[in-house]
Amino acid sequence: MQLAYTVLDVFTNKPMTGNQLAVVGKADGLSDDRMQAIAREFNLSETVFVRQPLVERHTASLRIFTPSIELPFAGHPTIGTAVLLGLQQRAAAVRLEEPIGLVTCIMERVTRNSGVARFKLPILPEEKGPGPAIADVATTLGIAPDEIGCGAYTTPMHYSAGVDFYLVPVRNAEVLSRVKLERRGWNEVYPAGHNAVYVFTETPEERGNDFAARMFAPGMGIGEDPATGAAAAALIGLIAAVGPHETGQAGYRLRQGHEMGRPSLIELQVGLEDRKLVHGGIGGSAVIVAEGRLDLPD
After folding, report:
1. pLDDT of 243
2. In 3D, which of 116, 89, 94 has the Cα closest to residue 105?
3. pTM for the whole thing?
4. Kind and range of the H or E element at 229?
5. Is 72 helix (H, G, I), strand (E, B) or coil?
6. Distance between CA atoms of 130 and 157, rounded to whole angstroms?
7. How far apart are CA 243 and CA 161, in angstroms?
8. Which residues contact 145 (CB under 8 A, 6 or more apart)?
9. What mean pLDDT, rounded, does the chain reach?
């Protein structure tokens, strides 16, 4: 069996930056175990498998795998696949069936091998509960307890927009850069979902972005991720709850991956009515960097 694949860098317009993504086409004949094995072979944050859609007017059906698990939804695979299929099919609208539901992306071609895609969140983020104790969080991140909290974001919280994340605000970008994981006790401090933690801060001193973040998910088979759209989607819920706006549309830019040498930029859209979140969106660029062929045993 031979299958074509494409590798893109996502949440960036510059090759060799952003978050790498492998997209495997014509994957209808692959079993779950075979897809998981291929994702483990690529060993990227996520690998996408493109299949025929269940509904004819949709563009494709997707399965999304990390090296160790399948995800119902993820942002950088959605953006990257939307750009790839939009370029291949010369389509401005790309409708992707994901396990979480239908995700409709608007895609704009930039060059022959790059584009920008944006999508409305298939489900709005919701608070799942308070986060762990500050002292325990500080221990797992190798920082002091008084370095947790940033402006109106005062304490760790647990949010999900389809994938659970613990959202941990820290004082500033300097603290963010010093985070060093202590894996002992990690699963006990962060028991929900896949033990994934999104550490973030506001960046008023930086031009071009409003937030900076880092994502750690040992339970997903990911040490640190260069750009995490599903975590940014969860963060939209917290921004709506405690951010500066009560009504109307607001846009934010979030940088991630700088500490890894893979700088990424994620666009967030937040729509509010009387402090209630009524719209959330994610956007970003993607660029094709490689194409190849998988040779698989029958």
Report:
1. 86
2. 94
3. 0.96
4. helix 229-242
5. coil
6. 5
7. 18
8. 134, 135, 138
9. 96
| 202 assigned to active site | no
Two structure tokens written together for 192: 């929900």
Structure-token pair, residue 236: 């939209």
Choose, from 41, 46, 202, 273, the residue flagged as catalytic.
46
- Main-chain dihedrals φ then ψ at residue 112, nearest 5 degrees: -65, -20
Q: pLDDT > 70: what percent of the chain?
A: 100
Tokens coding 143: 């920082």
DSSP letter for each residue of 83-141: HHHHHHHT-SEEEEEETTEEEEEEEEEEETTEEEEEEE-SS--EEEEE---HHHHHHHH
Q: What is the pLDDT of residues 49-60, one digit of tens each?
A: 999 999 999 999
Q: To 10 degrees, what angle do helices 75-89 and 229-242 make? A: 120
Distance separating alpha carbons of residues 241 and 222, to the nearest angstrom: 29
Cα–Cα distance measured from residue 34 to residue 101, given in angstroms and rounded to the nearest whole number: 23
The pLDDT value given to residue 76: 96
Size of the chain, expressed as the number of residues it contains: 298
Spatial separation of the C-alpha atoms in residues 165 and 156, rounded to whole Å: 10
Backbone dihedral region of 208: left (phi > 0), alpha (psi from -120 to 50 degrees) or beta?
left
- How confident is the model over 135-144, as pLDDT tens digits? 999 999 999 9
At residue 27, the 3 state secondary structure works out as coil
Pair 86, 288: CB distance under 8 Å: no
H/E stretch holding 248: strand 248-256
Residues 6+ apart with CB under 8 A from 189: 132, 136, 137, 139, 140
Range with lowest mean pLDDT among 161-165, 191-195, 247-251, 281-285: 191-195
pLDDT of residue 275: 86
- Token pair of 200 as six digits: 């973030």
- Give residue 57's identity as a one-letter amino acid code: R
- Find the mean pLDDT for residues 188-210: 95
